[in-house]
Structure prediction request, 382 residues.
Amino acid sequence: MRKIYLDNNATTPIHPEVIKEMGNDLEITYGNPSTLYSIGKEAKAKLEEARGRVANIIGAKSEEIVFTSGGTEANNLAIFGICKAYRNKGNHIITSKIEHDSVLNTCKALERDGFDIAYLPVDSYGMVDPEELKKAIRPDTIIISIMHSNNETGTIQPVSDMARIAKDRGIPFHTDAVQSIGKIKVNVEDLGVNLLSIASHKIYGPKGIGALYIRKGTRIQPILFGGHQEKGYRPGTENVPGIVGFGKAAEIADKNIETERLARLRDRLYNSLKEKIERIRLNGHPTRRLPNTLNVSIEFVEVEGMILALDDLGISVGTGSACATDTLEPSHVLAAMGVPPQLAHSTLRFSLGMDNTDEDIDYLIEIFPGVIERLRSFSPLY
Ligand SMILES: *Cc1c(COP(=O)(O)O)cnc(C)c1O
Prediction:
């Protein structure tokens, strides 16, 4: 059966060249990068080459990249790390209602420790208003964390405007750019952020590895303690094969940003579905959105039914949110946008990637309206 993977915002398939580079590393340059003999020095050289490649994709300097175990740890390090360094200045944190759980639950943990958190609202497109940020800033605000683009809807936030506001007030600004990297151009100088999170498995690299960009001069404390690796910001023997794979993935992604191609496929998909299926609506900003992401609510059909029916036909698509799969809670992102819970339960996310072709989209357009028609025939409400 034909297999079509359309859940690239949940994770991406690993690129064949990444696998090759990692295999080579596991077999040949397996040394501990902290050792003095040549096999260790080779590993160290591989590590630093990868650091340069990751720095390059966001326009940073090598020494501003700290490797972590993924996007989640990068977000934890950014927020906890700044809070520890700025504890004497205040205990107010600003974030938004639509962040990934790795930011929201970090903030909730800090809230239990006595920090005060402002969760900025979003409009019906899922966009934070920089004016709301201005209003929320207090003298005791010590960090602002607003994501670069949302994983569910793809809506791209006005990060450079917000980072400028933060800079004027002398407050460190963090952005979770996990979904944006490799899909659109992201440059830390243009953005003006202090901290930025990246995850390898969202850019065709291995899972369990990521990075935090820390702008030179940013005051931050580690959250793990041990050896001197990663200049003490992230101790523990480095995951060299993971880092090498991440570096290769970053190098490839930098050369292959497919904004136009993916946006064309995605828009063709939506326009055709809109013609063939009634009562379907787009969630997210119509234009300020990741080129690969299509989040739609289809009234009178349950998301589980759609996902399983498509899976039977070899097609993998996401619910509105990867995390909502375990809990069946309606997505906090759609709720913040004012989407009613009933409609949130009828929401699918198509997220396209490097491997998707025009033929994939043709096939989906051909079979999907029939799937919906069948599911709706079981719905007493339709
Ligand atoms: C996937 C994702 C993360 C988490 O990254 P992991 O490497 O899976 O821990 C964080 N933020 C966003 C926006 C994501 O999409």
